[in-house]
Amino acid sequence: MASGFRIFVMVKQVPDMGAKAGLNPDGTIDRARAKRMLNPFDKFALQAALHTKKMYGGSVTAISMGPPPAVEILLEALAHGVDRGFLLSDRRLAASDTLATAYALYKTIQHVGEFDIIFCGLQTTDGDTAQVGPQLAERLNLPQVTYCEDFSVKDGNVHARRIIEGGHQVVIAKPPVLVTIANSYHPLEYKSFRGAWRVQQLQRKQEELAKYITTITLDDVGADIERCGLKGSPTIVAKTEKVGEIGGSCTMHEGKSVDELVKEVITNSNVEEYLLAGKS
Ligand SMILES: Cc1cc2nc3c(=O)[nH]c(=O)nc-3n(C[C@H](O)[C@H](O)[C@H](O)COP(=O)(O)OP(=O)(O)OC[C@H]3O[C@@H](n4cnc5c(N)ncnc54)[C@H](O)[C@@H]3O)c2cc1C
Fold this sequence. Notes:
Layout: E1 5-10, E2 13-15, E3 36-38, H1 40-56, E4 58-65, H2 71-80, E5 84-88, H3 98-112, E6 117-121, H4 132-140, E7 144-154, E8 157-164, E9 167-173, E10 177-181, H5 193-204, H6 206-209, E11 213-216, H7 218-221, H8 258-267, H9 271-276
Parallel strand pairs: 1-4, 1-6, 4-5, 5-11, 6-10, 7-10
Antiparallel strand pairs: 2-3, 7-8, 8-9
Helix pairs in contact: 2-5, 3-4
This protein binds flavin-adenine dinucleotide (FAD).
Residues 10-12, 39, 41-42, 45, 63-66, 94-98, 101, 105, 120-121, 123-124, 126-133, 233, 235-237 line the site of flavin-adenine dinucleotide.
């Protein structure tokens, strides 16, 4: 791999829930009113992509699917050192579930070109399914490393440490490979002054910016429209409910055997009533 890795990083724009986005009467997020931001989990994926380029050479391409304002996160990625960005934006994608999203992103990746490593975030802060990365790997017929919290490249292979219950597992994957990065990976470094300045300059000259960020449609990527948007989404959201602020009290039970602790928790709470009522 003389010229380094062809690295893709998948990034999504999400509502900034910290800014109290609010909900529509039907329970969906009011995205027009919501402040927008780069999915916090994708910052780790971006750091992994930039680190790979820095250590082993190559180029980084950021890919996103979303409405036109999602270009903001590609600009942010560019300021951090990404080489180019692609935004798949098409009204026919509205109401896509994860199956339709992964299909559309798969077609986009095929359109953008060849790659060695695709980095994804672990999950998003809005959809929160953690399905898109693994679904992409399946569609692209790639080995996948999920929950990766650190990695290095030796002899052209990715040596990844992934989180498993109660410990770690080290796996070796031969590129092309898809890796989902956990939020225990290194945080995204600050963008350089030079990077931020460059993006500011590019924004002033749209024709220059177009050399780095390309907006594409479903027609450009040759997607089957029947498999996108509502038509291509077998998932139906039956109900969304606002649960209000998370709060309440917390009691710590310590220093006993598990059996004793379980008994104590059941005795001191209404868990038993709950179980008898057939709830879980
Ligand atoms: C029935 C249904 C209807 C929906 N309707 C809408 C709708 O109308 N509008 C809407 O905005 N959402 C809608 N959604 C949500 C949408 O399906 C998800 O946001 C999308 O599939 C991504 O899933 P996720 O957010 O759970 O990502 P996860 O699987 O949690 O994300 C994992 C990683 O995949 C990558 N990734 C995920 N999404 C993208 C993306 N768009 N671009 C680039 N990389 C990405 C990122 O690296 C991310 O960290 C709907 C969902 C369902 C189930």
